[in-house]
Amino acid sequence: MWEAVGLAFGLAMDATAVSAARGISAHAREKVILPLLFGGFQAGMSALGWLASAWAGHYIERWENWVAFGLLLVIGGKMLYEAWRGGDDDAPRPGGAYVYLGLAIATSIDAAAAGITLPTIPAPPWLSLVLIGGITAACSLAGFLLGRVAGKHVGRRLEVLGGVVLIALGTKILVGGL
C-alpha cells in the first residue's frame, strides 16, 4: 500500500508545480477546476496505462516526454507572453478549456506510463487509482493556494516565474526521457 501512496505523490508533483504556477496569476475559479481535472486525469491516464499495458506500453513510453514537453512549452510561453505584454487590467485572467485540458494532459502523460506498473504494486489497482487521483487533487489545491499567496505578496510579475517553471518542467521531462 505504501508503494501506491509513494507513486501517487510522485505523480502529483508535476500537477502541483503547474497549479502553483497558475495560482500566481490565475482566476480563483481555477482553485476548483485544476485539482479536479488534474486528479481525474492522473487517475484516468493511470487506468489507461494499466489497461493498455499489454499492447500500448512501448508507444506511451516512446512519446510521453515529447508530448508533455510540447504542451508545457506552449502554455509556459503563453504565460510569459501575457506577463510581458502586461496591460491596464491587473485582474487575474482565467484560462480557457483548451488551457485546462492541455495542462491536465501534459501533467498526466507520465501517469499512463506509471499505470503500466500498477500490477507490480502490492495494492489493488483500484485503490492505487483512487490514491493517485485523490493525492494529486489535494496537492494541486495546496500548490494553487501557495501560488496565490506568493502572487499577492510578490506581484503580478511573478507570472514570468510561473511560465519559466512550466517550460523548465517540460524540459526536465524531455531530457529525463532521452
Structure description:
It is a single chain. The chain has 178 residues and is mostly helical. The chain has one domain. The protein is built from five helices and no strands. Helix 2 (30-85) packs across helix 3 (97-115) and helix 2 packs across helix 5 (158-177). The longest helix has 56 residues, at 30-85. The mean pLDDT is 80.
Q: Which terms summarize this structure?
A:
178 residues, mainly alpha
What proportion of the residues is helical, as a percent range? over 70%
Continuous helix count: 5
Structural class: mainly alpha
Main sheet overview: none
Overall mean pLDDT stands at 80
Alpha carbon gyration radius: 16 Å
How far the N terminus sits from the C terminus, by CA atoms, comes to: 31 Å
Element-by-element helix/strand order:
HHHHH
**What number of structural domains do the residues give?**
1
Low confidence ranges: none
Provide a short characterization of the protein structure:
With 178 residues, this protein is mainly alpha-helical. The protein has helices at 2-25, 30-85, 97-115, 125-154, 158-177. The model has no long low-confidence stretch (mean pLDDT 80).
Question: What's the layout of helices and strands?
Answer:
Blueprint (H helix, E strand, L loop, with lengths): L1 H24 L4 H56 L11 H19 L9 H30 L3 H20 L1
